Every structure is written in structure tokens, then in C-alpha cells.
Amino acid sequence: MPARRLGLLALGVVAVSFSAIFIRWAAAPALAVAFYRNAMAAAVLLPIALARHREEFRRLSRRDWAIALSAGGLLALHFGLWIPSLSYTTVAASTVLVTSQPVWVAVMGRGMGESASGATLGGIALSMLGVAIISGGDLGLSGRAGLGDLLALLAAVAAAGYFLSGRTLRARLSLLTYVGIVYTTCSVLLAATMAVAGTPFSGFSLRVWGLFALMALVPQFLGHTVFNYLLAHLRATVVAVAVTGEPVGATLLAFVILGEVPRWTAFAGGAVILAGIYVTLSAQTRRPAPVPIE
Q1: What is the pTM of this model?
Q2: How far is the C-alpha of 184 from the C-alpha of 69, rounded, in Å?
Q3: pLDDT for residue 287 is more than 70
Q4: Higher per-residue confidence, 222 vs 230
Q5: Which residue of 69, 201, 226, 247 is 20 to 30 Å from 241, comparing CA positions?
Q6: What stretches of the chain show up as alpha helix (H) in DSSP?
């Protein structure tokens, strides 16, 4: 692999690993965090996409728009579930569970009629065992931690649906057009949810606004968008395996910065989940592989 692409992969993993840390530091309403993270990114990317790819927008069919909008909706659901999970469970448990996305893509793909080898099914089973280890340990600790685990797991399922709905569209659209539509749709839906829920749009300190901007710059621009860029140059399997390094980075950062020591079940279950993801993705090396977005 060229050094430049390897460097971008490493940059993306480190960038998304900071996501949970910034969210904890902000201590702002979860919906507000999700909204401003995406809205700030969309405010920069959409105008650039419109200026550079106006004809591409015009060529989009109704079906293309439907897929793009549904992808944005699933992304909003993903953030709306995962960010609150960090208020209930540890960074380690939350990030490990949310990066189980490749396994859920394999499960959904099988439900849609895609074939799955014995190794793929074995990898899925191994990952589910890891989920059970983490969730069982956290439920033994408190129902609050168990709720956080459940939210993170549902966020992973939403992310898997996001990938499945948009993977064909991404293959035909430029990076800026795709993320411009998806991030904007996600932001609009989160804003509507905030309005209904009565979540404030303002009144935050300068420090919190700065953290919102950091979330848009680091995890969103340098993380998600870099991974989407690399899809045009690397096998999807390579990107997917790289993203599973996020819980390792996030756990180390949480220990060093927040002083958060995860339970042994997070380590044990995380190792099992990552092993299951590796087996699942290795079994699909010769076919299109899922790409996590967290």
C-alpha cells in the first residue's frame, strides 16, 4: 500500500477515536452534539459540492435522491442513538459495540438474499458472543450501563443500514456530492427532532461551541470523509478492518485523558467482537465488504 494511503488510514482511525472524548468533554445534549457535528460539516461541504458538481446534482434520478435521503436518515438515527449511549456506559463498551457494524451488514445482506460462507456465519456468531460478554457484564453492573450498551448496538445496526442503502450510490457519485447530501439530510432531520424534543439550539458556552467545531473538523472531516475518499482507492475490506481500530484508540484516550478504566468484560468482549469482525471480513475478501462509519 502506498505510504500516503496508509497514512490517511491511520489519520482516519485516530480522528474517529477522538469522537467519544469530545462528546464527553462537551457534556451537551446528545441531539445538539449530533446536530452541530453534522451541520457544521454540511455547511462547508455542500456549497463546495454544488459549486464543483452542479451537473452531477442535476443528473440525480428520483431513485438516487430517495437512496441518498434514506442514507441521511439512517445516519441521523445512528448518531441519535450512539451519542446518548456515552452518557450511560463506558467509552470502551460503547465504541466496541458501535464498531460491530460490519457484522450487521453481513447479517442484513444475508437477509436480502446475499450468500454467506460458513466462515462468515462463524464470524457473526463470534461477534454476537462478544456482545453478550460486554452486555452481560454491564447489566451486572447496572441497568444504566446495559441501556448504554443497547443504544450503541442499535446505533451499529442503523449504521449498517446506512451503508447498505448508500453503497451503490457512492460508487456512482463523487465524494463531495455524496457526503454533501447525506450530511445535510442528517442535519435537517436532527434539527427537526431537536425542535420536537425541546432541545435548545443555543445557550452553550464558548468552550462547547469550540468542541462542536472540533467534532466537525476531526471525527467528521478527518475521519468519516477521509474513509469515504479512500473507498475510491482501496478495497472496502481494508478500510473496514482499519476502522475497527477505533475502540482501541478511544479506550486508550479515555484512560489517559478521562481516567476511565473499563471493566474486564469490555476487554474480553471487545477482543471477541474484533476477532469476529476479522473473520467475517476475511471471509468476504473476494466480494464487496462493508465499511463502518464510526
Answers
A1: 0.82
A2: 9
A3: no
A4: 222
A5: 69
A6: 3-17, 19-26, 30-52, 54-59, 62-85, 91-98, 101-111, 118-141, 143-172, 175-197, 206-215, 226-230, 236-243, 246-253, 264-283
